[in-house]
Amino acid sequence: MVSHDSLATLVRMFAPPGVPVRGLVDGLNRDTAQSYDVVVCTTAWAGAEFRRLGVPNLVQVPLGVDLPCFHPARPAARFNPASRRPRRVRSGPGG
Questions:
Q1: How is 14-76 classified by DSSP, letter by letter?
Q2: For 16, what's the count of Cα atoms within 13 Å in the CB-facing half-sphere?
Q3: What residues does each domain of the chain span?
Q4: Which letter does DSSP use for residue 93 in this model?
Q5: Which distant-in-sequence residues (6+ apart) come within 8 Å of 77 by Cβ?
Q6: Contact in structure between 70 and 79 (CB atoms under 8 Å)
Q7: S-S: 91 plus which of 31, 71, 74, 95, CB 3.0-4.6 Å?
Q8: Angle at the Cα of 28 from the Cα atoms of 24 and 31, rounded to 5 degrees
Q9: Closest CA to 44 of 3, 13, 11
Q10: Alpha carbon of 90 to those of 3, 15, 85, 95: distances in Å?
Q11: Higher confidence at residue 4 or residue 92?
Q12: How does pLDDT run across 14-55, given as a tens digit for each residue?
């Protein structure tokens, strides 16, 4: 499961003012973590609720581009669709 957001923040957006949401959110996050092999969070902020609960299957994988591999200064022909040329197709026997 990939989490990009804070469930507490989303619930607070729709809950009436002053309504405590932490218990609800903690229960939902525990259930979520138990339902999946891995909970992947893309930011520390997204994972804060799971870390606070001590979820053992939490992994943080930041969004972004691996610049040593995909650097704009080194465009690779295999990754550049504009550099692709149509291939000649040879006819086989009878074709």
A1: HSPTT---HHHHHHHHHHHHHHSS-EEESSHHHHHHHHHTT-TTEEE---S--TTTS-TTS--
A2: 1
A3: 2-83
A4: T
A5: 83
A6: yes
A7: 95
A8: 140
A9: 3
A10: 49, 66, 15, 9
A11: 4
A12: 999 989 999 999 999 999 999 999 999 999 999 999 999 999
Amino acid at 16: P
Tell me the whole-structure pTM to 2 decimals.
0.65
* C-beta of residue 6 within 8 angstroms of C-beta of residue 32: no
* CA pair distance 28, 89, nearest whole angstrom: 56
Structure tokens at 70: 């995909």
Residue identified by tokens 């992947």 is: 40
Tokens of 32: 């979520």
